[in-house]
Amino acid sequence: MKTPGFATRAVHAGQLADPATGAIMTPVYLTSTYVQEAPGKHKGFDYARTVHPTRLALERNLASLESGKFGLCFASGMAATSTVVETLSAGDHVVSGNDIYGGTYRVFTKVFQRLGLSFSFVNAYDLVALEAAITPKTKLIWLETPTNPLLQVVDIPAVVALAKKHGIRVAVDNTFATPYLQRPLELGADVVVHSTTKYLGGHSDVVGGAIVTNDPALHEQLKFLQNAVGAVPGPMDCFLVLRGTKTLALRMERHCANARRIAEHLAKRPDVAKVHYPGLAGHRGHDVAQLQMRDFGGMISFELKADLERAMRMISSTQVFSLAESLGGVESLIGHPASMTHGSIPREERLKAGLVDGLIRLSVGIEDADDLVADLDQAIEKSA
What we know:
Elements: H1 6-12, H2 53-65, E1 70-74, H3 77-85, E2 93-97, H4 102-112, E3 118-122, H5 127-133, E4 138-144, H6 156-166, E5 169-173, H7 178-181, E6 191-195, E7 209-213, H8 216-229, H9 235-245, H10 248-268, E8 272-276, H11 286-292, E9 299-304, H12 308-315, E10 322-323, E11 333-335, H13 347-353, E12 360-363, H14 369-383
Parallel strand pairs: 2-3, 2-4, 4-5, 5-6, 10-11
Antiparallel strand pairs: 1-7, 6-7, 8-9, 9-12, 11-12
């Protein structure tokens, strides 16, 4: 039999009927420990921080979706991100894109920098700038693509080729794209990170994170850290993300279709200065996105031809879009990155990366596209 397609694996990978009852859904095993037949003799489970059957099902599911051999799940996306960085040692250097999630920037500069790591933030889509930032101590290149919140597209194979030349590992935060749209391991990346809080969970009701890799030695190192540090998700969290991945393919198709409709509509409005969306032909990363992504995603950011005050009035005037942090749920969200998701990045650094104060970010949900377009129109007009 040929390898099952993505949607089939999303529903079935890593999940077997419960042997005790035949239950088709993976049970939520509410246990912290397991009875052993003799010291060290057990059914593969000894303590829930180390290994847990509900978590194991999710880890195998996500590994399959990312075309990876090994998956590990964590209590949050930031826990997953931190665990990748914890494989490094004091004195090591990381080159990171400068258009990244504010929480990632914060943990890099406020936590790991204090512990002896150093970081350079550059335009990751600029290969010349990326290579210029590499030093003899560089051990990791950290990418987001599409980036948060400017939706820039990084050429993953090109960065991987550059990294291999210097013997450097490449990590890709694939949260925005999801494995349905983009699989960085297939493009040569060493490790993929997700906030499962977002599209993988998909319903704004769970917080979690994940790491996937094909490297056995790296997996063992990450697995050790998962157990040693202990930032693991609870069984109900894992169950909810498993519930979410079953419909990932369907949801992403609707997210993408709605976002494309909205981006094209906003681009035609005379009072919109700029729309950032890889699906628009004029986007600087459109051609690369066509090569390495199945579709262009459900995230959009845009700028109004007005001052910051109008942008703030606009995002407070929507009726279908909810003003909230986060992204990737079935409901549409609107936010102001400079004061919300990216507020932890110093203003001068935000501006250097192109993140202007008036930028508005949309997480486009699965509602009727006509309602979403009409809601944005009335909010923009009301804010004038």
